[in-house]
Structures are given as structure tokens and as C-alpha cells.
Write a structure and sequence with these properties.
There is one protein chain. The chain is α/β, with parallel strands linked by helices and about 300 residues long. It is built from ten helices and 13 strands. It is rod-shaped and about 105 Å long.
């Protein structure tokens, strides 16, 4: 049964006549008659008992009508769903991020603007997030320290700054900043390979001719904070990653040049997706509202 035949059969059953069905569908009565007759001839069945007063469903026709009516209802549901997605009344967005800070802020703004969109957040390091974008496991990534080819679209959302996390009784107590040379002499606690923190620090140390002295590699900011608090070394994190602990202080690194930014990234061939575009447009507005002199999404 073709969709055209199903539509003609359904209209006749609802109207109770071929003339009424033609008016419903705005086609000629012979067209409706031909479509229904072809359906009956194909399967060797009778769907209607025809009379001068109209067309009444046979038992076979009644059974088929229930199925076709359900199919029509599913079609309407599909159209309503797609219309809702187009109007951003419903749908789903999966965000991948290196940490909760910017992702939570942007998710809150997304929910306020588009309350019907369901948002989920997945956590990983920047290397993994790039792979997850490519495999469509996530729709948008919030990450840092990566290079992007033409297959990605990137918004430089905000700048980042590396800071040192240390116990309050450290020998640098009372200072606001230290040098990269001083930092290189200390046992450092940092994130895993592939993280933006580690890449930024290692690149800066290499440019200055210093060797970084790693004492521990920990896969989360919370873990780094706990390790510093317990005296395992000096922690290095991005400034927004600091978790307040009374026994710890934060120092700037005076001569460290870090070009790291927080990036909002999606695949170029998905940038026009209405839900993804609504998020990247929102992120662009948020960046501009914070008066950051960074390029627009491009």
C-alpha cells in the first residue's frame, strides 16, 4: 500500500463517501476512486460496500482503517515533534566539557531561554572531547588548548590564567606571585597528559628552558586540591578551577605566557543544527555580555 493509497482510503473511511474524501483532500473524485480500486485490486479485497448513499467499511476495511488511522496519528506526532524541534520547544543537547564551571553557567542560560530543551553534560579532557565531537557522542564541547581544522567551528569564549595552589605555610607565604623559574624547582602536582593545564605549563616551561618536576599526576581539580592540602606538592590549575580551602593559597605566575582560552566548539557540518546553533549563539552573546574582546563564532 502506497502512502497515496493509504491517504485516499483513510479519507473515504472518515468522510463516508468518495465525494466527501475528494473534498477533504482537494482532489478529483475519480482520483480517489482509482487509488482505492487499485489498492483493492492489488490485494484482491473489498474495503467498502458502495451504495448510492455513500461508502461503508467492510470488516476487512474496518481492521485496516484502525491500522491506517494509527499510522496517520504517528505521522501527526512526528510532524508535531519536528515542528517543536524547529521552534526549539523540545529536543536534546549533549555538552562535553573539561570541567563544570562554564558548562553549568551556559546550561543555566540555555534552560532559561529554551526550557523545553533537555541538556546533559559529560566530562572528559580536551583530547577526548575532540574525538567525541567527531563521533557525534556529544553535540558541543567546552574545552581548551586544542588546535582545530576546518571540520570544526570554534568560539573563543574567554581567556584563561594558570595559577599555583599551595599550603598557607609554604615558604612563599605573603607573596602574590612567583616566577616560572621558582616554580620549576618545586615538586608539582598537575593534570594528566592531554589536559589543557599540563600542555600550557609544559609549553611555557619549554620556552623558558626549564624542566618541569612532576611529583604526581591527578585526573581532577578536586584531586589536585586534596593532594596539595595533604602536602604532596604544589598544584597548578587554571584559575577558575580553584576550590576554596582555608588551608590553601593561590599565587599568580609572573612571567608565564599562556594563550589558553576556553573554547565552545562544534563540528562545522553540524553548526546549522537549530539546537546546536541556539547554544553557540547564546555562548556568543554571553561572551559579549562579559565584555571579552575575543572573535565571534567562526
Amino acid at each position: 500500500m502506497t502512502p497515496t493509497q493509504a491517504r485516499a482510503f483513510h479519507a473515504v473511511a472518515q468522510a463516508g463517501s468518495f465525494t466527501g474524501a475528494a473534498r477533504r483532500l482537494n482532489v478529483s473524485q475519480p482520483t480517489i476512486t482509482t487509488q482505492v480500486k487499485e489498492l483493492e485490486r492489488t490485494y484482491g479485497i473489498e474495503l467498502f460496500r458502495r451504495s448510492a448513499s455513500g461508502a461503508k467499511l467492510t470488516e476487512t476495511g474496518s481492521t485496516l482503517f484502525a491500522m491506517v488511522d494509527d499510522w496517520h496519528e504517528k505521522q501527526r506526532e512526528c510532524c508535531d515533534f519536528l515542528s517543536g524541534v524547529r521552534a526549539l520547544r523540545n529536543g536534546r543537547l549533549t555538552i562535553g566539557t573539561y570541567g563544570p564551571y562554564d558548562a553549568i553557567d551556559l546550561t543555566a542560560a540555555m534552560r532559561e531561554s529554551f526550557p523545553g530543551i533537555e541538556v546533559s553534560i559529560m566530562f572528559s579532557n580536551s583530547n577526548s572531547l575532540k574525538d567525541q565531537l567527531a563521533s557525534h557522542e556529544i553535540d558541543v564541547a567546552i574545552m581548551s588548548g586544542m588546535n582545530y581544522d576546518a571540520s570544526f567551528r570554534c568560539l573563543k569564549f574567554r581567556k584563561r590564567r594558570l595559577v599555583v595552589l599551595m599550603p598557607k605555610d609554604c615558604r612563599w607565604k605573603g607573596r602574590e606571585a612567583i616566577t616560572l623559574a621558582e616554580l620549576a624547582q618545586e615538586p608539582l602536582i598537575c593534570r594528566e597528559s592531554g589536559s589543557a593545564v599540563r600542555a600550557c605549563l609544559e609549553q611555557a616551561a619549554s620556552r623558558g628552558g626549564y624542566n618541569v618536576n612532576w611529583s604526581a599526576e591527578i585526573g581532577s581539580r578536586e584531586g589536585i586540591v586534596a593532594a596539595v592540602e595533604r602536602g604532596l606538592g604544589i598544584g597548578v590549575i587554571f584559575e577558575e578551577g580553584y576550590i576554596p580551602v582555608n588551608s590553601l593559597d593561590v599565587l599568580a605566575i609572573r612571567d608565564l605566557e599562556c594563550d589558553a582560552t576556553v573554547d565552545v566548539v562544534c563540528l562545522a557540518d553540524r553548526a546549522s543544527n537549530r539546537i546546536i546553533k541556539s547554544f553557540t549563539d547564546l555562548a556568543t552573546r554571553e561572551a559579549q555580555a562579559r565584555q571579552r574582546s575575543l572573535p565571534a563564532f567562526a
